[in-house]
Design goal:
Blueprint lengths: L2 H14 L5 E5 L5 E5 H16 L5 H8 L17 H25 L4 H12 L7 H25 L4 H14 L2 H7 L6 H12 L1
Antiparallel strand pairs: 1-2
């Protein structure tokens, strides 16, 4: 692997490692350890990327790894707690993360064109026509379903319609390959039932 790729990957992970929020993860020999939340998220993104595509491009690997870069520095609570506020927060995050990822790539020796490509993928600029952008979206959806959906469902369990609607929107964002991998995820019976309801409707 190109040394500039390894350097960029390390810089991205160094940023993730500064996340003050820690999560418990079962490591080698089934020993539980605490690691920064966004580093764990990056690891899971890479895991699902390699399930989706066994030979992803170098630039896609960097873009996938750079999702949520310094996400904790712009709290959701800084924006109105409504849909417009959520969309504004998400847009601000994507722009900031893309700029930071682009700067890291440039600092590690990537051309301006390649660095801009990584930034465009992080922003998901062309979801409808860009195959790699669709892969990244699939991967993000898979991590949500595998790692975050149960918690989301518990927090919003009183509003079943909202949960099912979120599942429908998530499913609609994914490709056929994404759907195939999603159906292989081990989930609680409650989560499975909600997904079946979302797909049926």
């Amino acid at each position: 692997m190109d040394s500039k790729f390894e350097a960029a990957l390390k810089k991205i992970d160094d940023v993730h490692s500064k996340d003050p929020k820690l999560v418990a993860v079962t490591g080698t020999n089934n020993v539980e350890e605490q690691i920064p939340d966004e580093l764990h998220y990056a690891n899971r993104m890479t895991e699902y990327l390699l399930q989706h595509d066994h030979k992803p491009s170098e630039l896609l690997r960097l873009a996938v790894r750079a999702q949520h870069l310094q996400r904790w520095e712009i709290p959701r609570a800084d924006y109105p707690m409504n849909r417009m506020g959520y969309l504004s927060w998400r847009t601000a995050q994507k722009k900031r993360q893309a700029t930071h990822a682009e700067d890291i790539c440039l600092s590690c020796g990537y051309s301006a064109e390649d660095a801009a490509r990584v930034a465009a993928l992080v922003r998901k600029d062309d979801m409808k026509r860009d195959a790699e952008c669709q892969v990244l979206e699939d991967v993000a959806c898979l991590v949500f379903l595998a790692d975050q959906f149960d918690k989301f469902e518990q927090e919003h369990g009183g509003d079943r319609e909202k949960v099912v609607n979120i599942l429908k929107k998530t499913w609609a964002k994914m490709s056929e390959r994404g759907h195939e991998l999603a159906l292989q995820i081990t989930m609680s019976e409650q989560a499975k039932g909600l997904i079946e309801e979302a797909l049926a409707s």
